[in-house]
């Protein structure tokens, strides 16, 4: 099941008036939310262009049942320069218009059940009921998998530069600590890499499947 998203437009400049070229803007839900399916918090990232502009597709907070919003972190050359909250409406918006708004009211279990029942009744059919049951099973499994991968909160490390030479040949790099299971996130030139497709990782060491080009910038977020 696909959840509808809205486009959030981003424009960031430095205090000097210059655009935040190549800046990274990270959006992370403050908690798990529910929009007919369960939306989990792992962050989404937008990379700004030369004019300090960018955009990102996000699930809106409005319409969710848990009263969430997004924590927004803005990085310049790997350094955190600003952090705030944003409440995303159910329509396209500009980030600067929705910063630090109050989150939507949460819905208690009884209201959530009533809304779920109304939604099911509106789309009632044998095939719809079967699809809803499959979606609920998948969502439950997703939560169980997420909890299993995050049994306890650890010490957060943000944008660590791994040890190793980036010269277009070397593929092996090392972190200061061994990440907790499921917390390792690798970014190369602002883009998040995929385990198994772009890299492998064991303990505090990881290896690219293709050596990053000389001059590339890579950063790692994790907990330990």
SSE order and pairing:
Blueprint: E1 6-11, E2 24-29, E3 33-35, E4 37-39, E5 44-47, E6 53-58, E7 70-76, E8 79-86, E9 93-94, H1 95-98, H2 109-122, H3 126-149, E10 156-160, E11 172-174, E12 185-188, E13 191-192, E14 199-202, E15 205-208, E16 218-223
Structure described in brief:
The chain has 224 residues and is of the alpha+beta class. It has helices spanning 95-98, 109-122, 126-149, and strands at residues 6-11, 24-29, 33-35, 37-39, 44-47, 53-58, 70-76, 79-86, 93-94, 156-160, 172-174, 185-188, 191-192, 199-202, 205-208, 218-223. A hairpin with a 2-residue loop joins β12 (185-188) and β13.
Explained architecture:
This protein is of the alpha+beta class and 224 residues long. It has two domains: 6-149, Carboxypeptidase-like, regulatory domain (Immunoglobulin-like, Sandwich), CATH 2.60.40.1120; 156-223, no CATH class. A hairpin with a 2-residue loop joins strand 14 and strand 15. Helices cover 19% and strands 33% of the residues. Strands 5-2-7-8 form a four-stranded antiparallel sheet, with no helix packed on it. Strands 10-16-12-13 form a four-stranded antiparallel sheet, with no helix packed on it. It has helices spanning 95-98, 109-122, 126-149; strands spanning 6-11, 24-29, 33-35, 37-39, 44-47, 53-58, 70-76, 79-86, 93-94, 156-160, 172-174, 185-188, 191-192, 199-202, 205-208, 218-223.
Enumerate the strands of the largest sheet in spatial order, edge to edge or round the barrel. 5-2-7-8
- Terminal residue distance: 33 Å
Main sheet: strands, sense, barrel: 4 strands, antiparallel
Radius of gyration: 20 Å
Structural class: alpha+beta
- Could you give me the name of the CATH homologous superfamily of the largest domain? Carboxypeptidase-like, regulatory domain
pLDDT < 50 runs, ≥5 residues: none
What is the domain tally?
A: 2
Number of helices: 3
| CATH architecture group name of the largest domain | Sandwich
Mean of all residue-level pLDDT scores = 88
Please give the CATH class of the largest domain. Mainly Beta
Listing every helix as H and every strand as E from the N terminus to the C terminus, the arrangement reads: EEEEEEEEEHHHEEEEEEE
Task: Give the number of DSSP strands.
Answer: 16
The helical percent reads 10-25%
| CATH fold type of the largest domain | Immunoglobulin-like
Strand content: 25-35%
User: Which geometry do the CA atoms define?
Assistant: globular
């Amino acid at each position: 099941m696909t959840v509808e998203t809205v486009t959030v437009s981003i424009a960031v400049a430095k205090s000097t008036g210059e655009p935040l070229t190549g800046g990274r803007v990270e959006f992370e839900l403050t908690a798990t939310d529910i929009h007919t399916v369960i939306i989990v918090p792992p962050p989404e990232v937008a990379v700004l262009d030369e004019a300090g502009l960018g955009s990102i597709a996000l699930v809106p907070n409005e319409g969710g049942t848990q009263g969430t919003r997004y924590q927004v972190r803005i990085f310049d050359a790997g350094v955190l320069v600003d952090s705030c909250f944003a409440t995303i409406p159910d329509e396209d918006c500009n980030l600067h218009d929705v910063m630090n708004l109050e989150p939507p009211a949460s819905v208690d279990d009884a209201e959530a059940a009533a809304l779920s029942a109304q939604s099911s009744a509106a789309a009632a059919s044998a095939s719809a009921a079967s699809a809803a049951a499959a979606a609920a099973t998948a969502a439950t499994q997703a939560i169980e998998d997420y909890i299993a991968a995050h049994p306890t909160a650890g010490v957060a490390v943000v944008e660590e530069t791994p040890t190793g030479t980036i010269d277009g040949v070397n593929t092996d790099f090392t972190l200061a600590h061994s990440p907790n299971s499921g917390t390792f996130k690798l970014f190369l030139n602002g883009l998040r890499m995929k385990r198994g497709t772009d890299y492998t990782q064991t303990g505090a060491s990881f290896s690219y499947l293709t050596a990053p080009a000389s001059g590339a910038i890579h950063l790692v977020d994790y907990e330990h």
